[in-house]
């Protein structure tokens, strides 16, 4: 996709304008132990996209966290997708000293329109195909490629440290993070997933998965080359990727050579799949994350 110079200049300038307008609203916040500011960026990637960014106040460079959101296969649902799914979790990382980027994937918000019968196609690229023959591998690697673009861009901007990157993902975003681990990017220090997987709740039915054996096989494939330390967090009452399936995935991944620490948390709320999105969950998962990252130092 090519853009003329005026559009590219606008994309490059947009973060600077929005940094000031949103950052100013947080300038007098003295209550938090570490002052942070929230920003909206337009990222001039090969597939341009918006991103929510939160970071400590100051010039940096900071250690870097990317947060990958989940997916909806319904264009209408994607059109109402929030700018950030895990705001409280992202702010927690920022208060630990990280600059956090949570990109909004292409094909969400205003770009979600997708009416093939009228010749209108949106830029959504994370479909797995039909359940009779799903392609979980390429759907994960497509989003992993976006992460690589973001890492390169933020390092080039000198906003973040050039190594020690942490990637966090939920649901399909967690699956993309597992896919990313199979590439072993040298900048990435650790990957943390919450309720990772693809093909959950087919037809809206709890615990009805699309080709679960294929999902396990693809997880094993990623594990053959993955060597990035990982923390996998699942919840007992996740009706997208239940305990039996997540344990099978972990067993396949680690048996193939992948490095992943697995934790199954007690039931949370009515649906454990959205665990990371709740501020009430932070005291539950943050000690796991803190301990995991401390062990890597």
UniProtKB/TrEMBL annotation:
Keywords: Hydrolase, Signal. SUPFAM superfamilies: alpha/beta-Hydrolases. Residues 1-27 form the signal peptide. Coiled coil: none annotated. Gene3D superfamilies: alpha/beta hydrolase. The keyword Signal applies. The keyword Signal applies. GO terms for molecular function: carboxylic ester hydrolase activity. Pfam families: DLH (PF01738). It comes from the Bacteria. Residues 84-266 form the Dienelactone hydrolase domain. This is Dienelactone hydrolase.
